[in-house]
Amino acid sequence: MGEKAPDFMLPNDKNEDVILSKELGQGPIVLSWYVLDFTRVCTGQACGFRDEVHALQALGAKVFGISTDAPASHRVFKEMNQLNYALLSDWGGHVSERYGVLYERFGKLLRVSKRAIFVLDKDGVVRYRWVTEDAGVAPDVKAVAAEVQRLAGSSS
Fold first, then answer.
1. pLDDT in tens, 77-114
2. Active site residue 47
3. 21-40 tens-digit pLDDT
């Protein structure tokens, strides 16, 4: 909290590189980490942001979903759930590790993202951080939206 978020470059669901530092400057950024595509709680989290994304975008915010799934998996998951924001692939978990949101082992799986939310201000400083060790607990999307609204209001 209060520190500049580590920069990264990750491929999105279209296999195009997204560089965090190039996304900064216009409004808040929501980084929504989740464990796996196609699972119940992760689908609920993704759809919660889908349903809120227009209100967030109206405040100048950008939303990115992030997991260690491959871009091809993200593409199908995004289409199935009609997601209206980019999903980023942290294949190998290196960015998740830098943000402190990586399970080295999750059941039989190795190096998958924890469920976490970071809200960055327009300069890339972390203003909201929520991380859970319980993969069955979804984030409060309304609380995230309230934080984005607070940040958008303080920068106008």
1. 999 999 999 999 999 999 999 999 999 999 999 999 99
2. no
3. 999 998 999 999 999 999 99
Q: How far apart are CA 121 and CA 152, in angstroms?
A: 8
SS3 letters across the chain: CCCECCCCEEEECCCCEEEHHHHCCCCCEEEEECCCCCCHHHHHHHHHHHHHHHHHHHCCCEEEEEECCCHHHHHHHHHHCCCCCEEEECCCCHHHHHCCCEEEEECCEEEEECEEEEEECCCCEEEEEEEECCCCCCCCHHHHHHHHHHHHHHCC
What are the tokens at 105?
Answer: 């082992």
Q: What's the chain's average pLDDT?
A: 95
Annotated catalytic residue within 20, 42, 46, 152: 42
Q: CA 21, 43, 52, 154: dihedral to nearest 10 degrees?
A: -40
Asked whether 41 and 136 are in contact (CB, 8 A), the reply is: yes
Amino acid letter, residue 120: L
Q: Mind listing the domains of the chain with CATH numbers?
A: 33-121+132-154 (3.40.30.10)
